[in-house]
Amino acid sequence: MHFIWYNPDLREYKYGNVAAFNLEIERANNPRAYTVLMEFDKDSKQIAYKIIEQLNIANTQSIVRIAS
After folding, report:
1. pLDDT of the residue at 64
2. pTM for this structure?
3. Can you tell which superkingdom this protein's organism belongs to (predicted)?
4. What are the residue boundaries of the structural domains of the chain, listed by start?
């Protein structure tokens, strides 16, 4: 199983398997702030990275607007 999740410490979306997600949670400043957005039954890197790219662009643009 693989996930797309939001890492609030880095302010970006990430993709990985359960082990990668759990490792980030263990190292997190606030593990409860992590949000899983999508779940994949199999490794779907190509589509996941396209989704993440768009989410990170949208996230960056909203942060810039808030700061303006």
Report:
1. 54
2. 0.77
3. Bacteria
4. 2-67
